[in-house]
Amino acid sequence: MSRPRFRFLRFRKFSRQLLLLLAGLIALVQVAVYLLISRANEANAKQHIEQNLQTGARVFQQNLAERIEFLTGSAKVMAEDYAIRPLLMRNPDRGTLGSLLRSYAERMNYARNATAPVITLFTAEGELLAVADEALGDDNVAPFRDLIRQASDAELEQASGYSYLGGRLHVLVVVPLYAPRPVVAAWYGLAYPIDAVFAQAIKDTTLLEVTFTSNPLEDHPRVLSTTLGPAMAAAMTRHVAAGDGGPDRIGELDLDGEPYVTLFVPLPLVGDHPARVVLQRPLNAELAPARELERMVLVISLAALAAATLAALWIARGVSQPVQQLAAHTRLVAAGDYSQHLDLPREDELGQLAAAFNQMTTGLAERDRVRDLLGKVVSPEIATQLLHAEVKLGGEEREVTILFSDLRNFTGLSEALAPAEMLALLNRYLDRMSTIIERHGGVIDKYIGDAIMALFGAPVAAPDSARRALAAAREMADSLAELNQELAAEGRPALACGIGINTALVVAGNMGSKTRLNYTVIGDGVNLASRLEGLTKDEAYRTTVIVSEATALAAGEGDKLRRLGEVRVKGKTAAVRIYAVDLQPRPWPTRPLARPPTQPPF
Asked: Which is nearest to 37 in space by CA: 354, 421, 293, 331?
């Protein structure tokens, strides 16, 4: 797998991971918000229930006060009844008094439209005279006697309290019967049951569940009356038996698997442990509207998460596809194909990136075109030097082997051939010679008409530059012979050239002006190479390749080349020892030719 493809796959994997991370963060935030809302709703519901319970306790006390007020008023009405006094004066039997009390109870029941109250009649000393309900019995009227004693001791006109009558919870009131005032002839005792009907009446007002229980300290604590269903009433009985809850304390009880916020209100009894009034509100019922809102929030959150995920996928797709196109375009650029154009008609950053990428591709194509053109104008080595090195005027000293090659009788050839033919022939010759020079590590410095100036050892240094130059010269001569055979077959005139080679310390670098540069070498050694090429025209030397002693020694062929003696070339005061490179075995003289130093050949 290519590196750009691998990077794209890694980017796509990273995009998916980032998408999952964002979705996870959104889901986490939504879950946190949902939990916070749920906890807040539950806290608010409990607070609201507690307020309702406190209100319910006040309503309960108010209802009890109303019942006591009703019983007290009814007792006073009976005490003002004139018919009862003569009856008491004649010492009537218990049955007659009981019948009278039942008549009072029926009238009170009709007026109240509720459960008939219990009515009793006592002597001034608290002895039972009669009771409306004979089933009550003498052993259940002790709470009335306690209230009569309280009223007598405090000289009150009435007294009230709560107690069990026949195992059922009642509210009790005693009122004196005067004959005449302030003499108490008897006491009326009235009791109203605190039963399920009473509890339901409180529930209808407060919307709370109401339960009356006995004291947990009793031998058999029980539920006296309640508005709860049978299963929850049984659960409430277990809580009572376990002693759960305390007076005036709000807590939470589990009734048949459902939580109830509960308030325990003590109800003091006459001569007994206090009973308890339990006011309750189911938490789930209070939370029902909030739970509905939570479900709506949850549905909206899930819909928002799904929408966010789809939007993220759409955005990721909108990002990954352009990135994929960029990756494919990168592979084309890496392969050197700059012809393709990346088409991303977008106004965002990816569109700007694509435009920049296209500009980069255009720049790379232009660079390669310039490099290719530069490689054709100058040697590849010089082109590389110009492209990668700092381009500035100046150079450095370096030992370089310079090769000069020049065609003979070029002027005559130009007169004999048409310009186009002459140019084609010259290019044909220069192409062969240049190829040979570059194959041996040489660098074409410049073409001077039909002449070639080549460098060995610059701009890239080579320790065997002299040997390479000699090898190139020999192959150039052989290639020229082959070219002449081709020209002869074409009916064209043969070509002849001369080659001069010198190795010297020269300055290599960029020469020219600030606006136009030319990488070349300058120095006396360059001039000497050119002069040696000119010496090949002298028939006395009988050679087409002349090298200096420095080149012969540097190439390690000082004893292999034919010595031509010393010569003082134009522009030099000292004589130079030169050598001929014999290309084929010829009858050259065994001793070197001597040319007076004072007679330069040109």
From this structure: 293
